[in-house]
Write a structure and sequence with these properties.
It is found in: Cell membrane. The chain is mainly alpha-helical and about 300 residues long. It has 15 helices and no strands.
Length: about 300
């Protein structure tokens, strides 16, 4: 017993410095990950004149909210674009998960006769696509989605790469015995998917859901192609238009009716940082909802006692 206690004491003495070192390294790494965003927030709160004279500083010489005031001067347009982006993100993520989860589940079942054909059909789109012009014609003319909110949702609703990920997740994480037990009890395929497969697939669906959420929230290209109605402009496209208009004013300062002093007071650099904060901060709150499912995904293949 004394030898065993000695080994335990030696292990404890050895593990304590290792834990402290590991926690220190993890803390430094976490700080390095968070610091760029914090620095962007600091720059967005810096006075434009102080930024031009002294450059970027961790502690600004003069604080200012002029960048946010300039952006929020858009008023109802900015709030409306937030609403459009939130609606597109929520509805688009739900539709994407429905389409891709059903498709991936079908091609993951060995009993499905045409699983190889539909799996290849999805994989083929990862290698080749129709191109921008045919896609534009399909969305605007065949589907008639020009200047509608669905033009921001449906083109991103299905992603072949995510389907392949979900198919692999279904194949490895959902035992065939569970599905067979459901069939023995008389359940149909739809009920088996909802009652048995879906609860086991939450980690995979949460991962794909987060990817889809980020894709919808950061999308600006579809709005550039399909949206002319100012009431349907999403957040990212609105912020790009604000920055483009500011750059146009600065580049054509000599022909502008504004005074030189007014042009210098425009928060050109700080407003860019303010736009990054406004576009990034809301989506950060989506991560806590998916975190526990990520942890479950890490231990999905572990041996349970």
């Amino acid at each position: 017993m004394s030898q065993r206690k000695k080994k335990e004491r030696d292990f404890h003495n050895l593990s304590t410095p290792m834990n402290i070192s590991f926690n220190l390294i993890a803390g430094i790494f976490s700080l390095l990950c968070v610091f760029p965003f914090l620095f962007v927030v600091i720059i967005s709160l810096t006075d434009e004149g102080a930024l031009a004279n002294n450059g970027y500083r961790l502690i600004p010489e003069k604080w200012s909210f002029s960048a946010y005031q300039y952006v929020f001067d858009m008023g109802d347009s900015l709030i409306r674009s937030y609403g459009v982006t939130i609606f597109v993100t929520v509805v688009g993520t739900i539709i994407s998960l429905l389409f891709m989860s059903f498709y991936a589940y079908a091609v993951s079942r060995k009993s499905f006769k045409y699983r190889n054909f539909f799996a290849f059909f999805a994989f083929f789109t990862m290698l080749f696509n129709g191109g921008l012009v045919p896609t534009y014609i399909v969305v605007t003319q065949l589907m008639g989605l020009k200047d509608t909110v669905w033009a921001l949702i449906l083109p991103l609703a299905v992603n072949a790469f995510y389907i392949m990920i979900l198919r692999t997740f279904y194949s490895t994480s959902v035992p065939d015995a569970i599905i067979e037990s459901g069939k023995i009890d008389g359940a149909g395929e739809f009920r088996i998917f909802l009652k048995l497969v879906l609860p086991l697939s939450l980690p995979g669906l949460a991962t794909i859901g987060l990817f889809s959420t980020l894709g919808y929230w950061n999308d600006w290209f579809n709005a550039l192609l399909y949206i002319d109605n100012p009431n349907l402009v999403p957040l990212q496209s609105m912020l790009m238009r604000i920055e483009t208009s500011m750059q146009f004013i600065m580049q054509n300062a000599s022909n502008s009716s504004l005074s030189l002093e007014a042009l210098r007071s425009l928060p050109q650099d700080t407003s860019r940082m303010a736009m990054v904060v406004l576009a990034t901060l809301p989506i950060i709150f989506a991560y806590p909802f998916f975190q526990r499912y990520f942890i479950s995904g890490l231990t999905i293949g572990a041996v349970k006692e």
